[in-house]
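Handout for the seminar on molecular recognition.
Each group receives one record of this type.
Step one: identify the two inputs.
Step two: read the structure output and locate the region that could contact V1D.
Step three: write two sentences on what you found, then compare them with the reference statements printed after the record.
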Amino acid sequence: MTHKPRVAYFYDPDVGNYYYGPGHPMKPHRLSLTHSLVLSYDLFQHMEIYRPLKATAFDMCTFHSEDYINFLQRVTPQNIGGFTSSRFNVGEDCPVFPGMFDFCSIYSGASLDGAVKLNNNQADIVINWSGGFHHAKKFEASGFCYVNDIVLAILELLKHHARVLYIDIDIHHGDGVQEAFYLTDRVMTVSFHRYGNYFFPGTGDLFEVGLERGKFYSVNVPLKEGIDDESFLSIFKPVVEKVVSFYQPSCVVLQCGADSLAGDRLGCFNLSIRGHGDCVKFVKKLHLPLLVLGGGGYTIRNVARCWAYETALILGKDIDHLIPTNEYYDFYAPDYSLLPDLVSNSKTDNHNTRQYLDLIQQSVTEHLRMLPGAPAVQMQEIPPDFSRLELPPEDSTDMDIRYNSYERDKIVSYNAEFYDLGNKFSDHS
Ligand code: V1D
Ligand code: CA
């Protein structure tokens, strides 16, 4: 990879309009804030922006059960009474809201399209801030997640890559991704998370290491509340470094849940935006094909700040610490700063002692030493790309119009009216 990576950014302008319901902490609107900030910093000039195709029910069934996806596709707030919904774990955490299936199709389509872009070597780094739904299980919804776009994307990457590394810096354990690949050595999952006191989802103990062929290919870093930048990076860097050196992955998926920031509405860590970004910077420096995803994050002004800052970081662009005027400027009052001091106002002490962090690191290292070295895979004929055929527009009379994935990749989404780009975008037209 050259010094300046080729970055592809996937965004659907509809994704921010979905609504989980009153009182629910997950707010897709944060994605509109993030995108607006990315545009106001002129970052679109340095990357290709794509509007992803929606994932179909068929695409989702590469991981999920048909029964479950059928349910997601058919259930609505009006007809839910006619289903035995408890079977699929919808309810308070995972409500059935208007357009729920479309929302899942959008964020999953973006992660899948991103994986194909990396597989075809058409980008070095792909960003999909709408993805990262790490709790969704094969048969059910969990923790605000319905369809596990991460598992779908990793399955796509495995068509071209012998070993995929998954790293998760959301404050919650990446249980859905870990569970999906618990028995295989083709994917190594590494999650950093709050663990203990029944913190959701309650999994991610240090001793969950994988089973059978997958034994020692699941890595868990259980942390206590209040962890700050210095402590977090002091464990993140050596763990990732060791994992990469033992496992030798050929690509990386990074889940960047922003609920690990100080001041998050649900989280209890004390990371600054700079500290969170340092994790992204560290992973970028591995110079491996990289899929960057969103995840949790419930103080939405800080989620937008964090993901816009990390977009700039990925592009290698220094941006002004004062937020430019944009549609959601008022959210950043009173300081209008990109990197406000989130930590000083926090009342949570760091409960992670040096001794505790050293112990975890030592244990993870011991587990890694059990690995036989990077597992080889007999690569067979490469399966075809995930290629969802795009149907012609509803008003089209030409039923022969179909795009395959290669043709689709040429459809760079830019709507000058929406993005207000003037002539700046002419390079990509
Ligand atoms: F506070 C709430 C208000 C309304 C609805 C739900 C919540 C809420 C807060 N925290 N729900 C939770 C967590 N659920 C529970 C279970 C409820 N049971 C009795 C236990 O504690 C779920 C937290 C999900 C976190 C999701 C995520 O940030 O990891 C994420 N990552 O990618 C997308 C989301
Ligand atoms: Ca995590």
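Reference statements: Residues 23-25, 92-93, 132-135, 143-145, 170, 172, 200, 257, 259, 266, 295-296 surround V1D (ligand 1) (CB under 6 Å). Residues 391-429 have pLDDT under 50 and may be disordered.
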